[in-house]
Design a protein that fits this description.
Elements: E1 35-39, H1 45-57, E2 73-77, H2 88-91, E3 93-97, E4 104-108, H3 109-115, H4 119-127, H5 133-139, E5 142-144, E6 158-159
Parallel strand pairs: 1-2, 1-6, 2-5
Antiparallel strand pairs: 3-4
């Protein structure tokens, strides 16, 4: 028997190959983060949210790691003008429980968008991120604005098409 052969594989009369890979860990200071801006006016909410979540997570980078915050910053403008199809504007419900007895608050998409513009888009992006402390940290890299103006012009964000 050869020394590189696994004894469990001898019954099948072939040699098992063992592949090893190194896990990549990138330091916070060594990460190269860029800023992107997405204009959500007239675009479907799900497509904008999926693209933003992918970039926030860092899936477009070679140094992507599941357990690290390695994504880029995303600025979304015109979030109040995002498009929803069908009757979702009147029928889609957002629920929030206050913690008290009888404290279930329910809002339609239109009511929530009137009250807090951009909140439906924020909730859609949050649903596509991990549901824990990593997801909350990643969500801090997403800046959502209802109008066309944003205060992040100094970072020179690149336009990201959806």
């Amino acid at each position: 028997m050869r020394e590189d052969a696994n004894p469990e594989c001898q019954t099948y009369n072939f040699i098992c190959k063992v592949y090893t890979m190194k896990t990549i860990f990138v330091n916070e200071s060594a990460q190269n983060r860029t800023w992107y801006v997405i204009d959500a006016a007239g675009k479907p909410m799900g497509r904008v949210a999926a693209k933003a979540a992918s970039v926030l997570r860092g899936k477009n980078k070679a140094s992507y790691a599941v357990n690290q915050e390695c994504g880029d910053y995303v600025v979304i403008i015109n979030a109040d003008k995002v498009a929803v199809t069908g009757a979702k504007a009147d029928e889609k419900l957002y629920r929030h429980y206050t913690g008290y007895v009888g404290g279930l608050k329910t809002f339609t998409y239109n009511a929530l968008n009137e009250r807090h513009p951009g909140e439906p888009l924020k909730l859609a992006i949050q649903g596509m991120l991990p549901h824990g402390r990593l997801g909350r940290k990643i969500m801090g890299n997403c800046k959502i604005y209802a109008g066309a103006e944003h205060p992040h012009a100094a970072q020179n964000p690149k336009a990201l098409e959806v």
